[in-house]
Amino acid sequence: MRAPTTVEQTRAPMLIRALNKSGTALEKIGVRSTVRSAGELIEIAQRRCRLDDFGEGDFFEPLSQLLKSCDREARLNVVGRMALRSDVVRILCNRLLLTRDRRLYSEIAQQKIREPLFIVGLPRSGTTLLHMLLAADPAHRAPLTWEVMSPSPPSSEDRQKRIRQATRNLAVLRWLAPTFESVHATGAELPQECVSLMSPTFMSDQFDTMYNVPSYRGWFFNQDLRPAYEFHRRSLQQLQFRKSAERWVLKAPAHMFAARALLSIYPDARFVQIHRDPIEAVASVSSLVTILRRVFSDAVDPVQIGRDALTYWAQALKTFMRARDQLQPDHVCDLRYHDVRRDPIAAARRVYQYFGWLFSAKIEKRMRATLTEQASQTNGVHRYDPTYFKLNGMNGFAEYCERFGFPSSASSEDEERAEAAA
User: Which of 118, 139, 105 has its CA nearest to residue 238?
Assistant: First the structure.
């Protein structure tokens, strides 16, 4: 008898289930709360911050696309509607404050972002673990969860207050999804994926991860993401003004999908690409997305999540492979997922050797301390099954598997269907 998967073990607290059921009951009798419009949420943010300048770049259309898709397609429960409103207003406030800070502190715009390192690869491939290890080096700078959530002011003022607020927000997530911590490590002072830095443009795949928004997803896939990466650079300048280091170490699998836009803003970027069997990776990330979406909706389809993940990540890999083939070979370091898991310190050392960075005994000691701390905070084991998402026999990764030596069950007909879907 097989052990239940983490998705099957996930269950919201009784109070939350009762709250969401009451919302469903009201909808059945015609009482339904709609998602606020972009204009309404913008006015709320402006009143809360007592500011009205959102800075350069259009975000009204992306925000409107997101909200319309959430209202019509996401089937949000009571918690989901509350979370969407709160999150959007927080993001809008951050944009207002970042614009104000840039006006008050002229030195922010003068910050130089040189040769940032981006850790990419399929999700659930050890990118988070490697990111934490590289961030342990004092010469490196990584965005931390608390400062991504509250990047203003661009100093250490109210630092502990902002850390406590981030800690409370993460505690709420852990309460709503008790198994999430066994899937992905969270912590106010842990390194954070840098796609969150682009959320004030409302062109980010983080929204598609949280909510089922197919029309927003389709719209997003056809956008020029250079403005989002320009905002990413502005956000790094804001964080660097508070605390600088020799280089930025950044991480997000989604960067593969927008490699050309990224390189248009960071032409001197370096990359570490971690490789894992695609079906294993897609099954794992499908489990994570299912758990997260069930916080915000009571109508989540794991099979659709799996199919969408296959399509998206197959295309993301193809996009990145084309872009990396145009780079100088010494700009991309390749690692294997199983090597990262088996000996994380050796994998980190390999990155240092590849790029010619100094790897000292002091750095290794700090990394080992990070590993020990991370192990002590691990809560449970992430169990997932590709058949739960009906991934067996579906593959759009034949080219990638052949190039990097993974077994591929995809026929040429399978591959053609995957290309057409992408």
Answer: 105
Cβ neighbourhood burial of 159 (10 Å; 0-12, 13-18, 19+): middle
- Asked whether the beta carbons of 181 and 171 are under 8 A apart, the reply is no
Cα 322 to Cα 257, 258, 415, 417: the distances in Å are 11, 11, 17, 20
> pLDDT, tens digit, for every residue of 313-337?
999 999 999 999 999 989 999 999 9
Average of per-residue pLDDT across 150-170: 94
Instruction: Name, in order, each residue with C-beta under 8 angstroms of 300's C-beta and a sequence gap of 6 or more.
Output: 212, 290, 293, 294
Write the DSSP symbol of residue 154: S
pTM as predicted: 0.91
User: Whose structure tokens read 């969860």?
Assistant: 145
Q: Please, which residues have CB within 8 angstroms of residue 365's CB and are 6 or more apart in sequence? A: none
Edge-to-edge order in the sheet of strand 332-336: 140-141, 247-251, 117-121, 270-275, 332-336
Provide the mean pLDDT of the chain: 90
Strands 247-251 and 270-275: unpaired
Q: Which residues contact 139 (CB under 8 A, 6 or more apart)?
A: 245, 246, 247, 357
- Write the DSSP symbol of residue 76: B
* Amino acid at residue number 237: Q
**Runs of H (alpha helix) within 29-141:** 38-49, 60-73, 78-104, 127-135
> What single DSSP character describes residue 156?
S
Confidence of residue 30 (pLDDT cuts 50, 70, 90): low
What residues are paired with 140 via a beta bridge? 247
Q: State the Cα–Cα distance between residues 240 and 244, nearest whole angstrom.
A: 5
Q: Of how many residues is the chain composed?
A: 422
DSSP string of 314-378, one letter each residue: HHHHHHHHHHHTTS-GGGEEEEEHHHHHH-HHHHHHHHHHHHT----HHHHHHHHHHHHHHHHH-
Residue with tokens 């502990």: 160
- Return all residues near 173 (Cβ < 8 A) that are at least 6 apart: 180, 186, 295
- Judged by DSSP in three states, 143 sits in coil
C-alpha closest to that of 170 among 156, 188, 152: 188
- The token duo for 399 is 């080219």
Q: In the predicted model, what is the mean pLDDT of residues 56-67?
A: 95
For 60, the token pair is 């009204």
Q: How far apart are the C-alpha atoms of 125 and 288, rounded to whole Å?
A: 13
